[in-house]
Design goal:
By secondary structure, the protein is α+β, with helices and mostly antiparallel strands. 27% of the residues lie in helices and 23% in strands. Helix 8 (360-369) crosses helix 13 and helix 11 (515-539) crosses helix 15 (616-624). The N and C termini lie far apart (90 Å). The structure holds FE2/S2 (inorganic) cluster.
Length: 657
């Protein structure tokens, strides 16, 4: 008689196993992803499977009720204490007696896929560096003297195939009482990224979780964190706060200057950012109602200046050619080395940097968006105070960074503010009446709709609002291609109000879009476009297939308005998408999947860096990109824009052509 055939779904993996093999052993034999924390002792319930019965012509088998051994005492006990659904079996207890079809539900898969909202996004498969392992340790024996830690390490090697797991003094202090309290049965949290797995925690008896990890994106303006469950991959809290280093300078270069000009300046900024990181940890833990000591690891990404300051390294070298990084490689640290208060033995992984101006945040964006996995030529623009830009496809990937300044975030704008309730975030201007309508953060209705509360406090205009406002002014013929706002006489609307020798558009009350605002946006968008254009030159192309807008506020930019403004090159609008905080997502991927860390470490070496600061064509592209949308590059995917030209005297309107 042939051995029973066992088929696992959804993987479809199949094979013959000896009768009496446990489902867990069969899964291991056939390379099926079936979880286990207790090593098959009937304690953790992670190995649950759902047997199916009947005829399966697709698989060529008929499965009877006798396929598996009847429920045993361990399963009955588990059912009594914790509950086991009637259709479910514990894989480590059920024996295969005849042909079987077994479904592995998502929660029993070790490498379950984490759901990402965007269909085109790279899938994330759970394979975190920190895992729980239940072990039974040999009790001490006078005839074979050995230490508790050595016997614990041996148990991990023998029962879990983890050789060389090492503990430190804290492990010793934990292990001694835990082993005795648990009657020589303990659960260890083992961090497995690196040549020497580290035992981070020892619990007496069985501990089934939870354990957590934190993915952190340290931006120049904001710091964002995603607290994740390391078993499920679920984000259990997403939180953010302002980077307190803003008081030392709005943008990166002013912070580097602060470090150059003030003795001890870099140390002051390091202290400020580390304090903020600890506030972020506390905030995320409070939001999720968890103990921060259960956070066993964190992944940190940031631009090169933030990267250095978090690490306590002076960033002055990044402010001058040749822009030398202290290190470009990924880093593995203890949390206490950067004074981060997580679990006392928590590990930190810092993504590699790409170059002196293109940091671990850009590497994280590359990991999240993975242009190297696509045939389409993809331009990824991470819009923030500094724009990180990637261009590539399967053949190669290029990267640069461009100093856009904080205008896109509402700074340097007369009525600008950060995105917060009360800020205008969307703007439309009627091309005929020239009247505006807008939406305010915190209110769903547009300002001209009946549902718009008349007492709404409108406090200013945020980054996405100013981008839309300038683009709408251009579309409504109130702004010419050179970026000049027309006068009331030139445009025929008294919404244009004089301001010295220039004019401003009255959006609402004293919230104006001034000529200075338009200039600030022009400078920012020219820097962004010039960076993208440099990469396109280096790639030898004039067009791209797809554009991804990333960055915390990239999610709020309307692709059409971005293109009307000439922030991004021409592209089919259906192919322009928003990725949200892609750097934060990249950090999360590296937190949940160790192999992704190796991928990004390899990828950064393949990325060709273009240095905007020394590239002579940058200035040329910058000047041409000053026009709205552009002095010479065509935008065939946009409808033609109004051909108006104003002069600074505010005289009669002239039409071109
Ligand atoms: S492997 Fe833990 S209960 Fe089966």
């Amino acid at each position: 008689m042939t051995d029973p055939l066992v088929i696992f779904t959804p993987s479809g993996k199949r094979g013959h196993v000896a009768p009496g093999t446990t489902v867990l052993a069969a899964a291991r034999q056939l390379g099926v992803d079936l979880d286990s924390v207790c090593g098959g002792r009937g304690i953790c319930s992670k190995c649950q499977v759902e047997p199916a019965f009947g005829a399966f012509p697709k698989h060529g088998v008929t499965v009877t009720e006798e396929a598996l051994s009847p429920r045993n005492a361990v399963e009955d006990r588990y059912d009594r204490i914790r509950g086991l659904a009637p259709a479910r079996r514990l894989g480590c207890q059920a024996l295969i007696l005849a042909d079987a079809v077994l479904d592995v539900p998502p929660e029993s898969q070790v490498h379950k896929q984490v759901v990402r909202k965007r269909a085109e996004a790279r899938p994330v498969v759970m394979d975190p560096a920190t895992r729980l392992h239940y072990v039974e340790v040999a009790p001490p024996d006078m005839h074979e003297p050995s230490g508790d830690l050595q016997r614990l390490e041996r148990a991990l090697a023998e029962q879990w195939g983890i050789p060389n797991a090492k503990g430190d003094l804290r492990t010793l202090q934990m292990a001694q009482p835990a082993l005795r309290k648990g009657d020589w049965k303990v659960t260890c949290a083992v961090y497995g990224d690196g040549p020497e797995p580290r035992i981070l925690q020892v619990w007496p008896g069985f501990y089934g979780g939870p354990i957590y990890g934190l993915a952190i994106d340290v931006g120049s303006t904001t710091i964002a964190g995603h607290l994740c469950d390391l078993a499920t991959g679920d984000v259990i809290a997403s939180t953010g706060l302002m980077n307190p280093q803003i008081r030392f300078g709005e943008d990166l270069m002013s912070r580097v200057s602060y470090a150059m000009l003030n003795p001890g300046g870099a140390a002051q900024m390091t202290a400020a950012v580390r304090q903020a990181l600890n506030a972020l940890v506390a905030q995320a833990a409070a939001e999720a109602r968890i103990d921060p000591a259960l956070i066993f690891e964190a992944v940190i990404v940031g631009n090169p200046v933030m990267h250095h300051l978090v690490l306590g390294i002076d960033p002055v070298e990044l402010g001058q050619a040749p822009f030398a990084l202290a290190t470009a490689d990924a880093l593995h640290l203890w949390a206490e080395e950067i004074e981060l208060r997580l679990h006392p033995d928590a590990r930190i992984y810092i993504l590699p940097c790409i170059a002196g101006h293109v940091g671990a945040d850009a590497a994280a964006v590359a990991l999240s968006e993975s242009p190297q996995l696509n045939d389409e030529l993809t331009l990824v623009v991470d819009v923030g105070t500094n724009a990180e830009i990637l261009l590539g496809n399967r053949s190669r990937v290029l990267a640069c960074s461009s100093p856009t300044g904080p205008a896109f975030e509402g700074a340097q704008i007369s009525s600008g503010q950060r995105a917060a309730p009360g800020a205008i975030e969307r703007v439309e201007i009627d091309p005929v009446t020239k009247a505006p309508r807008f939406r305010v953060i915190g209110v769903n209705a547009w300002s001209d709709e009946a549902a718009f509360p008349p007492d709404t406090r409108v406090t200013g205009i945020c980054g996405s609002g100013i981008i839309e406002a300038v683009a709408e002014l251009r579309l409504a013929g109130l702004l010419d291609a050179s970026g000049l706002l027309g006068s009331a006489e030139q445009t025929g609307t008294d919404r244009m109000v004089p301001q010295g020798r220039t004019h401003a558009y009255r959006l609402r009350g004293d919230i104006l879009v001034t000529q200075g605002d338009v200039r600030a946006i022009q400078l920012a968008k020219s820097a962004l476009y010039a960076g993208a254009r440099l990469l396109m030159d280096a790639f030898g192309t004039d067009t791209v297939d797809r554009i991804v807008l990333a960055g915390a506020f990239g999610a709020h930019i309307s692709p059409r308005h971005a293109m009307v403004l000439g922030m991004i090159p021409d592209c089919d609008l259906a192919k322009v998408s928003s990725a949200g905080n892609a750097a934060g997502t990249g950090a999360r991927i590296a937190l949940l999947n160790v192999a992704a860390r190796r991928d990004v470490e390899t990828l950064v070496h393949r990325i060709h860096k273009v240095e905007t600061a020394i590239e002579p064509r940058f200035q040329e592209h910058f000047v041409a990109a000053n026009a709205i949308p552009h002095a010479s590059d065509g935008f065939p995917h946009l409808d033609p824009l109004p051909e108006v030209t104003f002069n600074t005297e505010g005289g009669r309107r002239r039409r071109r052509g």
